[in-house]
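Meet our chain:
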Amino acid sequence: MSNAKPQIDASKLIKAMQSALNGSNAKIAQMTHVFEVAQNVLEYEKFKTAALALVGGLCDKYGAERVSLGWVKHDYVVLKSISHTDHFEKKMQVVKDLEGIMEEAFEQDAAIVYPAPENNVLSIREHEGYSRAYHSKYILSVPVRKGEDCIGIITCERNTKPFDDLDSEQIHLTATLCSARLVELYNKSNWFGVRMLRSMRKFLAKFLGFEHTWAKFFGILGIAFVLFAVFFPLPYKVSAPAILKTDKIIYTTAPFDGYIDTVYVKPGDVVYKGSPLLKLNQTELRLEEADLMAQEQDSRREIQKAQAAHQLAEMRIHQARLMQTLAKLKTVRYKLSMSTIVVTADSAIIIEGDLQKRLGAPVHQGSELFQMASIENIYVEINVPEEELRNVELGGQGLLAIKSRPDYVYRFNTTLISPTAEVKDQENTFAVRGEFVYRTPAWFRPGMTGVAKIFAGKKSLWWILSHQAIDYLRIKLWW
């Protein structure tokens, strides 16, 4: 029996040791990269710069073309930083698409690699669409966690080689190391009001006790509101519907019997002095004019014949006929001049008279054709409810907002209160006239409506909110 011992191949042992050493060195180098990026992030004092340092460091260490950081806010992912990019527009399509693939990873709460491995069970539809749209061959989206909560998503893009599990683990490790610092800086970067509410809650928790902090706080807030509502005066304004009006209404009538030939305007048109409104048919008048002109010539010839024959009586008769013919001709020509009806006011707007569909229809002398309202000296009429009339005084000021342009208000003074009430919308209202303090704009039109607010002094908030109900109860319950 042989007692020979197995021989160890020294060259193979050396190669195995070198391979293990190289693997250890590679892992040490990789961990060094992770700590270098994390250390760089921890040095910054603002969230924006820290986030840029994180994505920039990952982009450089892993040879990516672009690395982006999205932050979870109210179950949505908002893009906060892009590597080597100081500023970007939130409305850019690429920003929206990046947020889309980040939300895909956030909703599944898992790292997503594109192209997906064979055993993939995750949805990668958004990643696939993004890859086609922006020609990114390889994409990796990794959740950023603080404890068990996902606070953000890191998305890496590159075209040189695909991402493997080791890349995903190292990026996740880097993000986890930086997550606490990022959350701290993000909270500090919040709007002043949010930070103030958090500080106030801590103060109230210490001041009022740990339990029922918000209930106690809202109790104190309610007491403060009641005191404010009872003792602090606020400007009170009587609000009521209003309409623009004018004192000058112009009626246009038919000058003689005739037929409508042409209509030049329609309701709503602004017209000026001398502008044509309507034209009546002139055919009959032209024929009558021609006939009278022929009679004029005949009378003149007869007069000449009588003069030549020294027939004084005949001459007098024909002269009388000539005068009669000339009078009729003058009347016909006057009607011809009046057949085109023109505007007599300086500037007005047509409020009634839609005659476009009545071409050829007969009109009778004196019948109303158009109704126009002057657009000068426009005033406002406010329909103040009866219960608010006591709060309106003559000479008071108010503001008017027109429905067609509610972004501007116009100041007016109250000049007249109607002595009688009108029933509108099943309630008594009194018409209050207001004259504008400044010149009214050119686009004001009679009939425009809006809301007027008349200043009624200073009242407490409690009075403003309750005076109508109290007045109603006084009317119903008095004895």
